[in-house]
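pasting for ref
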Amino acid sequence: MEKKLKIILEKCPQNHKCPAVKICPVGALSQKEFNAPVIDYDKCIRCGKCSNFCPKQALILEEIDVNS
């Protein structure tokens, strides 16, 4: 099983600058104005720092089955 970062839009308030964007050590998260962050999957190393930091739990590392 691998993990993939996912944004749960229903949990993301989208009314402020996302604090998790600055936490990402590889710059895989970006945000325009107060919209939900966008994930650059080519940069994301699935370290979980942003998902652990998000106070609304809108960022999660989801397990995916790569054999399907």
